[in-house]
Amino acid sequence: MASAPTSTGSAKVDAVVQKAAAAVPGTPTGFDLYARFALAGAIGCSVTHGALTPVDVIKTRIQLDPATYNRGMIGSFKQPTYANGLIGGFTKMAKQEGLGAFYAGFGPILFKQIPYTMAKFVVYEKVAEAIFRAYPKETLSSGQQTQVNLASGLIAGLAAAVVSQPADTMLSKINKTKGAPGQGTVSRLIQIAGELGVRGSFAGLPTRLFMVGTLTAGQFALYGDIKAALGARGSVEIAK
């Protein structure tokens, strides 16, 4: 019998997780297994970005304040003009703009990050599973296992970059251009998508493939090596 899902600390998130876990009894396989990987990535992305978006908004305000920006990052920490730090920024924004301002742009961020995170983890798991099926982990040296993590992470990063590239391009356009008076985020996204077309949506993809692929490969390789160095041999990987 499967154990109960671990609590995330949020009743609403726990309800979604429990409902998904109860939908198909027993050990999931095939599409159902990877659908759960994708769901886990989507929920994890939503929760973490939901928790930290207010912090990012405050950070951006402090960085982009004209007087602060002209003094550079060090100056912004020494003598910011928007606020004197995180707590001061929270207080000022709450009083002047209301709590809704903390989540300005949250929807567009998820529009990019959810498919990115889902693709990254699902592809990593699938590639690692395929490699370890052909070459059992027990037969591989530490260096070879690092290479597996590196290769799996690289492929996962490339896939995630491709999947999220259109959203990343559209969000860059939103940040650089002003919408018409009263125009909402969704209508702006639709307008920009129409203007860009399929080809325009993937502008800059080679550069992003290099950046995201390298970053993700390094993350998973370091993760595996540090885990091994700390003696954390147990794993939640699907292939052992």
Describe the 3D structure.
The chain folds into two domains: 11-104, no CATH class; 105-229, no CATH class. It has eight helices and no strands. The protein has helices spanning 11-23, 30-64, 66-78, 86-97, 106-134, 142-176, 185-201, 205-229. Helix 1 packs antiparallel against helix 2, helix 2 crosses helix 5 and helix 6 packs across helix 7 (185-201).
Number of helices: 8
Contiguous runs where pLDDT drops below 50 for at least 5 residues? 68-79, 234-240
E-strand count: 0
The largest sheet is: none
Count of separate structural domains: 2
Class based on secondary structure composition and strand pairing: mainly alpha
Mean pLDDT: 75
The 3D shape can be described as: globular
What fraction strand?
under 5%
What gyration radius follows from the Cα positions, in whole Å?
21 Å
Question: Span between N and C termini?
Answer: 21 Å
Strand and helix order: HHHHHHHH
List keywords for this structure.
about 240 residues, mainly alpha, 2 domains, 8 helices, globular, disordered C terminus, membrane, phosphate transmembrane transporter activity, transport, transmembrane helix, repeat
Topology:
Layout lengths: L10 H13 L6 H35 L1 H13 L7 H12 L8 H29 L7 H35 L8 H17 L3 H25 L11
Helix pairs in contact: 1-2, 2-4, 2-5, 5-6, 6-7, 6-8
Short description:
This protein is mainly α and 240 residues long. It has helices spanning 11-23, 30-64, 66-78, 86-97, 106-134, 142-176, 185-201, 205-229.
